[in-house]
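Consider the following assembly input.
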Amino acid sequence: MPIHNDMSDELHNRLPMFRAERGMSRRELAELVGVNPQTIGFLERGEYGPSLILALKIARVFDVPIETLFALDPFPSLGEQLARAARES
Amino acid sequence: MMQATKSFQIPMQPARARLLSVVAIASLSVGYLGRAWLGDVAGPVDLGLSVLKLLGLVSTILLFLSNYGQMSQRREAELDEREAQLRNRAYVLTHQIMVSLLFLAFFYVEAAAKLGWWLPDAGEVGNLITAFALGSMALPAAILAWRDRALPDEG
């Protein structure tokens, strides 16, 4: 029986941002987690959902919890995050 | 690809592999099925069918030796999880197409025997089986080429 819920099937990620911050190329990240660089490209564009193992490997490379990189809901933009941080401080 | 062993392959861009797949499938279909359907023919038709059969055979072999053909038969450990998923989907579709063709052929043979339609003789069956075998060899690579969405390598 199919399972229905209200959760999105779309997986959002912050991979490009984290990769850019670390000055890491797709190829370098791909080598660290053992995939083809094209797979990193598809991941970043949201055109491929990684396995749990691959997501955990990527999170380990950036030394962050997995939910910092991947989420079912869209991440707030950097501008929104800065505005929120400014309001809170 | 992960830990890919160095095997001979012809590097091919998606567009070229797609074109080759169309040439292969069309040539196999027209060349071998035409030969089975028309039987013994002479002159330009005979020559044309022979050329198409040869073209189908060569293009199938080239497609099989391409990066897409080699990906279709690489060990699971040599593919990353996305490539393995693509390859598995290509095999599932190939299986569905070949099984559908087989069932269509069975139905046709049953109907043809009762309705007096054309049925192949032993030699013509050989052409049909060859087309079927070469088609099943070309299909996984063709499907992979048509589904490939190459991204620019941004380093």
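Chain B has a mean pLDDT of 88. Ask yourself how this observation constrains the way the partners meet.
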